[in-house]
Every structure is written in C-alpha cells, then in structure tokens.
Amino acid sequence: MKKKKVNLRDLKPNSEVQHTHNDGHNHGNGSAFKTYVPAIISFTMLIIGIGLDYFDVSFFKDWIRIAWYGIAYLPVGFPVVKEGWISIKKGDVFTEFFLMSIATIGAFVIGEYPEGVAVMLFYAVGELFQSAAVNRAKGNIKALLDVRPKEANVFREGDYKSVSPEVVNIGEKIQIRVGEKIPLDGILLSEKASLNTAALTGESKPDSIQKEAKVYAGSINLESVIEVEVTNKFEDSSIARILDLVQNATARKSKTELFIRQFARIYTPIVVFLAIGVTFIPYFFVDDYVFRDWLYRALIFLVISCPCALVISIPLGYFGGLGAASKNGILFKGASFLDAMTKINTLVMDKTGTVTKGVFKIKEVKAIDWKETEFMQYLMAMEEQSTHPIAKAILEYKSEGEDFEAQDVSEIAGKGLKGIVNGKTVLVGNKALMTANNINVPTETESIVESIVLVAIDNQFAGYVVIADELKEDAKETITALHKVGIKNIMMLSGDKDSITQQVAKELNIENAKGGLLPEDKLNEVEILKKNPENKVAFIGDGINDAPVLAASNVGIAMGGLGSDVAIETADVIIQTDQPSKVVRAIKISRSTRKIVWQNIILAFGVKVIVLILGAGGLATMWEAVFADVGVALLAILNAVRLQRMSW
C-alpha cells in the first residue's frame, strides 16, 4: 500500500499554507496545523516522561510509566502500525511501516519505552517534513477548470441571454464584450475584431481579424463588442481540447517513488530475518543458550537497525534543498522533482514570456528625409486614435516639443489608418496600405521579421518603426550557462511566427527552433523527444497553451511571476522571479541536494552496519544503540542544513 502524501498548494516564501490529501479533501491552515498535533503531543509527553525518569519521581513507576509512554506512542505510532497491518493484508509484508512497528514495539517489550516513542516520533517528523515538500498532485487541474469561460451571451427569443457554454448549440449567435473570453469556437459576424490569442497559441502579437474569420474559445476580445456564430460545441472547443490534453499528459506523467520505500523492500526483510537468526541460531552453537537473553539481544538488534537516521536524513536533505531553492526564488513542488532535475539533459523552452518579456517595445525607428523626433510626432498623433497594443508601444516613445494633433482619422480595414496632421495627409499601417496608395516602400523592409509600422506623409514614404518583444536581460547568459552545466540539447518551441522564433533563437545561439505551433504541436514535439529513453526532457513555459507540455515533460518549469495560473498549477518547478537564468540555479541546487542526500544515506547505512554487527555480537548495549542512532541522525541533519548556507 502506498503512503498517502500531504500536498501543499502555492508554496511561496512567507505565504500561507494550504494542503489537500489525495483523497480529495480540502483543508485550510487550521487543518495544516492539525497534521502536526500528533507529533507535538508525542514530543511533549516524551520530554515530560524523560524528565520524570531523570529525576526518579516516585509515582512514575510500573504501570503508570508504561501507560504514559504508551499514550505518548499512540499518536505517532498507531497510524504507522495501522498502515503496516493494511500492507500485510494486501500481501506487502516487508515495508518500512512493518520494520518501524516491530522495532518500536520491540523497544517496549525490552522496557525501553522512551526509545520506542522517540524512534517513532523521529519517523513521524521525517514524514511530515517530506509531506510538507510535496505539492498538489498532477491529477488536480482545478485551475484550468477555473479559467474556462463560465458563461456565454447567446441570442435567443430576440435578446441576448447568459447561459452556460455547454448548452449553446452549433449555429447560434453569441455576443462577446470587451475584455471577455470567447466561450466557444466560431466565425466572426462583426466587421472586425482584435483578439488576444496568447492563451491558445502563445502568439505575442494580438490578432486582428476580419468578418467571417475563425475565432477560438479562450481568446480574449480586446477592442469592441463582437458577435460570433458558433461552429463547435463546447466539448469540442479549443479550450476544452487543451483541458483534455492536460488530463492525458498528467496521466502519463510518472511519479518518482521515494528512495526509502524502495530501500526498505530489501533492507527490512534482511533485518527481520537476521533478528530471527540472532534469536534462534545460537541454540545450535551455544552450550548455555538462554532464549530470553538471545531474544533480548535480537530486540536490541532491531532497535539498532531502525532506519530512523535514514528516514529523517533523506527528507531533511530534500527539505534543505527545497528551502534553498525557495530562498532563490525557485519553487519545487516536491522532493521527487529535485531528483528529476538532476537527470535532465534536454531543455525545451517557449519563447514569449519565457525568454522574452512578453510586451511590445520600439526596437528601431527609421525616418527617411525627416528628423526622427518630428517623424515620431506625426506617427504618435495618428496612433493616439488607436487602442491597438502596437499603438500603445509607439506612444511610449519620448518625444520633444509640442504634441501634434490628428484630424479626420479613419481606419482602413486590415491595412491601417489615414488622417490629417498639421495639414499633411498621413498614412500609418502595413505594406498593403502603402501599395493601395501607390507609395513605394524600400525593399529593406521585406527582410524585417518583427511587427513593422510603415508611415507615409503627403504621399511620400517617410519611414518605419519596428516593434518587437524584448529579450529578458538574462536570456543570453542562460543559454551559455546551460551549456556549461551539461545541457547540450536546447530547443525552442513557440506559437509565434516562425520567422520571429528563428530570429530569437539565432540571437540566443539556439540551433533547434520551431514557430507557429499550436499546443498539440508542442506536445507532439516533446513526445517525440521522449521516445528516446536517453532524453530526460524539461520544458519551460508560461501560458495556458504550455500546460499540456508542462504536464507531459519529465520536469515542467513555469514562469511564476507573469505566467498563467494554469501553467503554474501544472508545472513541477516554478521560477517565481520570471528569470530564465534561475533554471540553471535550480539544476545546481538539485545536484547539490542529491549529493548531500547520498552522503547522508552512506553515512547512516555505514554506521548502521557497523553497530548492527556489534549488537549481534553482544558488544553494543541499548544505550550505545540509541547513541549511535541519534548521533547519526544529528550528523545527517547538520549535513542537510549546509544546503541553506550554500551559494550557487
């Protein structure tokens, strides 16, 4: 039987903690505290009991002492004994639950009640530390359900009525207000629309479309009220398809089993059979064999063999790594992902919002036969009449002198703007607008892959402005650093235009890049990489469209500052500062954590073997066993704490 793990949601430095068990119950902070109550009760009673023993209090004898430690044992011991019994009934006898049960009950049998409580308490605390590091299970995609459009304004009986998208039929007309998500796939009935499709395609530039163009559920209407004719039922819509992809990818995602559980399958039966051997085998070789003496020695052997140093050092090692990562703005959703990160050799990344800032900025201003400042004053006067995101980027330009004012501005569908500024006719738009007005455009503009705004003044080409998404400051150094830590295979997948994707990849020195991809295309690319068992794939993304790939990759990494809630929910690792260079730091922290965990394993196991041999030979007493056990645990804890002081 597998252990139930406590999962925490939205673990962030100094944040409130919420958790859910995998049985589906939701709890707040009060319940989170309740999980620690049994350990607190046991610890308090143990300390009081040891104090009473130390001062040899007269009434603390016989059955009172046994009852006291028995009650102290129950809060932490009963759940473990119960799990061990359930596992036995299912045919899985040799679990760590079984060993912990017989070792601690054995301690009670030989009269070492404080040791029995202390050992189980160590185990319980170790489990709590491990549980606190584990986040929401991948099967929980509640966040994606939350971002689905919850209502649709459908035209029925001469008026628009708000209904659930699930009950809207193909062919019906729906209305979408400014800022609302399109609830269903359809065809645009309005003359034009400006849509933010980043959630679906990752396209960095808002999509301006004309009448009868296809629109997709999940897109956001940016400018004016629009009407759409529904072409697909909700369950067949683009947003529902992404939901299905996340569900399937999550189901395929393997979960790493904790080392202690795998090790216990070998360690536990060996120790149990050795203890049985210590009890009975001497009968055939010792003349003055006394069963009670050898049983006593076997129980000491079991107490010594209790893997509490292993049990506590492993989760504490990971806990130290998780804490160190958190201090560096990196959130691992569980200890298993620290392990998985050490094995990554292939890194796939999104473009917009991951290595770029996801906002438009002026990249270049080219004025022809005009001063740049005056040229921009004409352009800005026109763009003040527009609400397009590109217009907003242009209006951020810092100009000198008085602002110009545009008059008689009209929009030419799919081409741009026409108006009068300072008595001059100004055209602002794309090449189609220039061609329609017989204005020659320099051939140099054809090689520009970014968004470009062409300007003509009084029927003469006056220049252009290149608008582009900026690279993040640490994007280039990230790629260089990834190569240095051994990540040689780096790939960029983007929903943005392939030409833009290729240019960004070239700037970053990424050889393999593909653009113009839908979420299912990205997923297919990662699945192809995963078919090679040697590839351990990490994916970095930030949008809803990245959720399926984040779930399908060996390690999903989300940008937590600007990233979507769905990407953050689905990912295994969250970069809270949105800096791609933190991925390199995450890899280094993971490797350091793994190294310290293995140091603790070797230390704990090595000492155990030595003391076990001494215990079997009668050379180790119970006190020496306790000292060795607690001492090793202390050394392991101190070693794990080193992670908090390391720098990467």
Automatic annotation (TrEMBL):
Q: Which residues cross the membrane?
A: 36-57, 63-81, 93-111, 117-134, 266-286, 298-319, 596-616, 622-641
Provide a GO CC annotation, any one. Answer: plasma membrane
Asked whether the UniProt record includes Translocase among its keywords, one would answer yes
Concerning Pfam families, the annotation shows: E1-E2_ATPase, Hydrolase
Q: What is its EC number?
A: 7.2.2.12
Name the chemical reaction catalysed here. Zn(2+)(in) + ATP + H2O = Zn(2+)(out) + ADP + phosphate + H(+)
Tell me the compartments it is located in: Cell membrane; Membrane
Q: What molecular function terms (GO) are annotated for this protein? A: ATP binding; ATP hydrolysis activity; cadmium ion transmembrane transporter activity; metal ion binding; P-type zinc transporter activity
Gene3D superfamilies (alphabetical):
Calcium-transporting ATPase, cytoplasmic domain N, Calcium-transporting ATPase, cytoplasmic transduction domain A, HAD superfamily/HAD-like
**Which protein, by its recorded name, is this?**
P-type Zn(2+) transporter
